[in-house]
Amino acid sequence: MKLIRFVFIVFLLLTLNVDAQIEQLEIKAVLKADTILIGDRVEFAIIANGKGNFSVSLPVLADTLPGGIYIIGKPIIDSTIKDNTRSYSFKLPVTAFSPGNVSVSKFPVLVKHGGRVDTTWITTDSLFVKLVPRDTTLKDIKDIKPPIKEPIRFSEVAPWAGLGLLFAAIIVLLVMYLRSRKQNKPFLNIFKPKEPAHVVALRELMLL
Known about the structure:
Elements: E1 22-31, E2 35-37, E3 42-52, E4 55-57, E5 64-65, E6 69-71, E7 76-82, E8 85-95, E9 100-102, E10 107-113, E11 116-122, E12 127-130, H1 154-182, H2 197-206
Parallel strand pairs: 2-12
Antiparallel strand pairs: 1-3, 3-8, 4-10, 5-6, 6-8, 7-8, 9-12, 10-11
């Protein structure tokens, strides 16, 4: 989005009971856009020019400026002195995260001269913050579909079913074995004790 550049100038002829050390001190508050998308970066600059022995500085900055604007980077500070004319420049990258009109209101600028520090307050024009427009080329967003249900195959169930049957058979055999031990009976026919030899011989003779 092409940002519309504009300069909102606050022209201040300071009447701070200054002495002859400052002549025609001019402070400009500059925003380089009047409309941005939410979260877009825009530069907020403060420029001070004047003649005499003075200095301009900013107070300790928090992460936000008065008016709902957020600082998103370190300020760039520059100063020049030429033929008794002093210039100070402060550039801050800022943004806003709330849609609607926002502005920097009553931002303090410190002016030091003659062993004293005076404060002047600057206010910018409003900045309109827009939401990101919806992409009309995209189709309507639909709900996420649940996973496709596939039938359970016998090959997937067979191993688990076999393990279950084996476990059940082991339980049944264990119960039968404990019961036979308790009743002092043989456990299944394969474990039936052999008859004595003389009993087998008598039975065979009776069959002749």
